[in-house]
């Protein structure tokens, strides 16, 4: 048998440790490549074809035709505007409420500890379960919310069937679902701020608002950036919450009423798995990836410019 010589960097004790590390990492790397890396490049290839699951044998390379089609598709504009509306409401309002809640929880009292537990419970409820629960709350005639309104003499409101209230109703559920998680992250950031800085400011006569404005918020900026970035990425990818709450049997795209709650991921799902146009669905997915990447880079640039 031929004498196989290992590369110099694999010889000796360091080389044996490297080989052992590679052997231990191999299962994870294989899974990561098969389930993460390969689908990314396969999806990119799909976006350059006209693959239709009803006739996969007729697949052809179409280049950038699917991407050009995006600019003439009115539903892309509708779904993007709805997604931006959802993002603005759920991220901005939700983060402000989370910050207020985190400040309220920043106490050693029994009430503060109970508040942490109560506010985190919605986050551990699955999105689909939350959507079903809130469907019952928003139900037209017998919903809990309308029963409360009737109790004070107000008429019923078709929360999920009205074009003006459907998206705000979904945004409320999204905020309720994520509020505790964001608040606890912000709370961790607040409690990481040195008490010496706070006490020095108090000795100098700084009030609660001044300490919040000039000490807490500036020192909390990295945590706020993380919370905002993750919230924006999550809101651009919203799917199951809106699908369960507003879609009806037989809809092609969903997003009732009148596509007012149709988000971009719902449209991707409809194109790829309902209309079976996998090529166009993959192109829409890459468009969404580009949008999220651009928004994240803008955020990083803005935060970096303030450091």
Relative strand content: under 5%
CATH architecture: Orthogonal Bundle
Q: What is the residue-mean pLDDT, rounded to a whole number?
A: 87
Secondary structural class: mainly alpha
Shape annotation: flat
Instruction: Tell me the helix content.
Output: over 70%
Largest sheet: none
Number of structural units classed as domains: 1
- Superfamily (CATH H level) name: MetI-like
Helices, by number, come to: 13
Work out the number of β strands.
0
- Could you list the spans in which at least 5 consecutive residues all have pLDDT below 50? none
Q: What is the CA–CA distance across the termini?
A: 62 Å
Kindly provide the radius of gyration, computed on alpha-carbon positions and rounded to a whole number of angstroms. 25 Å
The CATH C-level class name: Mainly Alpha
CATH-defined fold name: MetI-like fold
Element string (H = helix, E = strand): HHHHHHHHHHHHH
Question: What key attributes describe this structure?
Answer:
single chain; 307 residues; mainly alpha; MetI-like fold
How would you characterize the overall build of this protein?
With 307 residues, the protein is mostly helical. The chain has one domain: MetI-like (MetI-like fold, Orthogonal Bundle), CATH 1.10.3720.10. Helix content is 71%, strand content 0%. The chain is built from 13 helices and no strands. It has helices spanning 12-46, 65-70, 74-105, 110-124, 127-138, 144-151, 166-191, 195-203, 208-219, 221-236, 240-246, 264-274, 278-306. Helix 7 runs antiparallel to helix 11. The longest helix is centred in the N-terminal third of the chain and has 35 residues, at 12-46.
